Amino acid sequence: MKAGQSFGRREFLKTTGEALSLFTVAIHLPSQIANATEGGSKRIKREAPHIRRLLDEMDSKGSRFWSVPQKDGELLYFIIKATRSRNVLEVGTSHGFSAIWIGLGLEETGGKLTTIEIDKERYNLARKHVNEAGLSQRITSIRGDAHVEVTKLEGPFDFVFLDADKEGQMDYFNKLFPKKLVPGGILAVHNAIRHAHSMKDYLDMIQKHPDFDTVILSVTMDDGFCLSYRHRVS
Asked: Which domains are seen in the chain, by residue range?
């Protein structure tokens, strides 16, 4: 779907099917990634009572912190596990809701999340929530301007979630591609339907980029993601 077009039921079903095909391709990663689970230590599960309580409480305050809705958090959790992602970057932590969903997925793959937040209050609150979830060893929080901090990160990442300033997508992309996003990696940009006008340059570019397959996907029928899969062979 091009930026600015309506997103009807037919387009939704079409892009959902395309996205599932993308996940099917992406799941066939090298065995050293697919079989990696840390230590044998007992992992934290999303069904744990303290996780359910924490996520429900955070979700009830989500509009205040511009965090993803719960269904989008569940999709991130699903993608992380389905693609066996291990080195993940999030730009725009907010109060940590999506970071916890990603972290729960990484509990299965044995991976790590690096998340960046510019606002001090949200950064501190996110760290508190991550600690309450028991995911502090899984998630590294950085406070700062992501346009600067991304350049300091070594990478490469196999999954990147961008949910910060919508006008900044091109700059983030240029700092991540090609060296900091692995072939076979996924770049996920949130608010790609409601705020398509603010990232039109990015959406136009990524949907035509020869190195990526891209779909616009919604699980809420309201807003959603631009998901881009980097080809393994150029």
From this structure: 11-27+44-230 (3.40.50.150)
Which residues does the chain have with pLDDT short of 70? 1-41, 62, 234
pTM for the model: 0.84
**The three-state (H, E, C) secondary structure of the chain, written as one string:** CCCCCCCCHHHHHHHHHHHHHHHHHHCCCCHHHHCCCCCCCCCCCCCCHHHHHHHHHHHHCHHHHCCCCHHHHHHHHHHHHHCCCCEEEEECCCCCHHHHHHHHHHHHHCCEEEEEECCHHHHHHHHHHHHHHCCCCCEEEEECCHHHHHHHCCCCEEEEEECCCHHHHHHHHHHHCCCCEEEEEEEEEECCCCCHHHHHHHHHHHHHCCCEEEEEECCCCCCCEEEEEECCCC
